[in-house]
Fold this protein.
Amino acid sequence: DMKENKGIKKWGFLFVLFMMLFIPSLSVTAHQVLSITGEDSISPGSTISYNIEIASDDATIITGFTSPITYDSSVLTLTKMELGTGWTGETKSVPTGNTITFNSEAGVTGNTVVATMVFKVNSSATSNTAYITLSGATFNYKDGEGSAMKSLSPVTKNLKVKSSDNSLTGIKINGKSIEE
């Protein structure tokens, strides 16, 4: 009897442990990913656009997005924001370090472009790199369990600034300058 009881307790414990460890991983969990999409290389004097996108499952209805935005203001100037389909919010330029906020009254599901950031690249940019970062981003959502707010992982778009020097000055072949 005593051995049987210990065996039942042992198997019962293992069964409960198994249930705790493996069953939660089988449930469907809402997963959202924030990204900044657009070209990796930029040219001085050009105008460039980058999308703020959230990839989400279809069961999550996204109703709001807020994030501080930072960017290399020695290279980039944010000139305006263009709203994604189903989104409302401020569309004028935002200085680096400020917060952007967008809402969706009806809510959006799946992959969505929240907004498009339009930048002007400084024509006299001397840096060969620049960046755009969304850090501390949150989104509001509704699902089968109600409404809530969730944090998103920070995202940075690193950019390569193309040279604006198109001259052949300083180029040498076999030790001789090609200007000679």
Notes: The first strand starts at residue 33 and ends at 37. The radius of gyration is 26 Å. Helices lie at 2-26. Confidence is low (pLDDT under 50) at residues 20-29.
